[in-house]
Write the structure tokens for this entry.
Amino acid sequence: MANDARNTLNSLVAALERHYEAISSGRGGEDPAVMATYEHLKTAFLDYEEAVSDAFGEVLPMELAEDDEDWS
């Protein structure tokens, strides 16, 4: 299980990097590439959160923001 947590951590870091690359291109939050990386990042975060809980019984010190159409 710890290996799963490590793999999901690696996936989360990669998702963060892809998200950064998309948003730093300056195309704005409505860009399909930005939106796709956001969704991938969200999934990677949730996968990591679950893997850490399963492997170590720990929780992360943060949570996803509530879905709200007005935040962008």
Summary: The CA atoms of residues 10 and 48 lie 9 Å apart. The first helix runs from residue 2 to 24.
